[in-house]
Design brief:
Elements: E1 2-3, E2 9-14, E3 17-22, H1 28-33, H2 41-55, H3 59-72, H4 77-89, H5 94-107, H6 112-124, H7 128-138, H8 146-159, H9 163-176, H10 180-205
Antiparallel strand pairs: 1-2, 2-3
Length: about 210
């Protein structure tokens, strides 16, 4: 079992595959206290160079550059996010991507893209309860896009077959949305989920042959 020094993030085995168990519910004020908003231009330049190396296919060189940045400043959120991005989309290692997304959020709880990418990893792996926990934690951060978060939480509940809560989350997204096109799509989502719910109820009440 692996954990960071904070003891908040645990690595466990699930069906012989390593999975990060994210205890967002227990982070509380500790998460906010570790927030790091300072922009270091030398590290930003290093990240840009590393991104160029990724686009050239030089993944090891990109990794080495980002690691050298972490030696200088291990709590710099964008370094962790860029490493997560590298592992998630290029040098594929979902476990390490998860670890660095979590550390991104640890050091900057307002880093929206890290939540989104981490949730998508869990959804793609059908680890819906982890995705749900992350989204519920993200909704406590005022600066994040709550329309997108409620919508994604609706998707998770739909995957879980919990159509009542899925409808509830899509409606919450609709109420917070100021975009007419987005609201129209959310209305369609609510209608679609209602139909799925009715079909499920109807099948349950059908006589067994």
């Amino acid at each position: 079992m692996w954990s960071t020094s904070s003891g908040r993030f645990l690595l466990q085995l699930n069906n012989s595959s390593p999975v990060i168990l994210n205890t967002f519910q227990d982070l509380g004020e500790d998460l906010i206290k570790t927030k790091m908003k300072i922009v270091d231009q030398s590290l930003e330049d290093l990240i840009n160079i590393a991104e160029d190396e990724v686009f050239e296919g030089n993944y090891q060189q990109a990794y080495n550059l980002l690691q050298s940045g972490l030696y200088e400043e291990p709590g710099y959120p964008k370094l962790h996010y860029t490493l997560a991005w590298l592992f998630n989309y290029y040098s594929i290692n979902k476990l390490r991507a998860e670890r660095h997304y979590i550390l991104t959020i640890k050091f900057d709880p307002e880093y929206e893209a890290a939540y989104s990418d981490l949730v998508d990893i869990h959804i793609d792996a059908k680890r819906y309860k982890y995705a749900k926990a992350i989204l519920i934690r993200a909704l406590t951060v005022e600066s994040l896009d709550h329309v997108a978060l409620h919508k994604k939480l609706g998707v998770v509940y739909e995957k879980l077959g919990d159509y009542v809560n899925a409808i509830r989350e899509y409606r919450k997204a609709m109420m917070e949305s100021t975009d007419n096109d987005d609201s129209a799509e959310l209305k369609k989502d609510v209608k679609r989920i209602r139909m799925k719910r009715f079909k499920t109820i109807f099948r349950k009440w059908q006589p067994q042959s």
